[in-house]
What does this fold into?
Amino acid sequence: RRIVMGIGGSATNDAGIGLLAALGYRFLDERGEELPPVGESLGKIARVDGSSANKLLCETSFTIACDVNNPFYGSRGAAAVYAPQKGASPDEVDFLEKGMIHYAQVIKETRQMDISEIPGAGAAGGLGGGVLPFLNAELQSGIDIVLDMLRFRETIQGADLIFTGEGKLDKQTGMGKALGGILRYAKEEAVPVIAIGGCVEACEILNEMGFASIFSIQTAPVSLQEAMDRDFALKNIRQVVTQIMRTIQIGTHG
It folds into this structure.
């Protein structure tokens, strides 16, 4: 009856109403007619009917693991940040944003919960915040759950340096994602962190976040398919890390 649910990488921007519909919730317009549970309907919802919701939900708790801390809407919200990544045009982003604002207001008026500024509410197209008023759920940082399970804090005590990385390093890297969690723990233990990535953007922002240095593993222009090849990537990672360590050794010997 306790479910840990990982969210993220969603191709939807429906504020979680698709998931809730699968659990028996119905979304009604001003005339009481049922709306399809898609992002296009968010601006038309007047009431959420839970009379047919799965009865087992009353006995079930949810820990929702998300890797970002974006709010429900706004300049860093679900529609503004993630909808364009999934193919939404500027007009569609604006339409979805208005729907998110409207739906958040409906929830505030009918469920007495303001989800607009909850960190992580914008995860997975707004699913993070959209389900909170209807499920016995809490949002937690996915990386915190994983790092606690791995006893990461104990592991890095006494370390001189941490290497970490992901496919793309950009300004979203510190927004609650895995590297942001690693960096936070490392700061508490005063261990410097070097980040490597297949693609690197916004180095200055990443340095301001606290990363000691940022490196791309690509040594020459290559196709995306080649860059994502496992053996090719591992070879480049070894090469870059080796060169970084050789540089560190020069400083140590000096």
The radius of gyration is 21 Å. The chain has a mean pLDDT of 92.
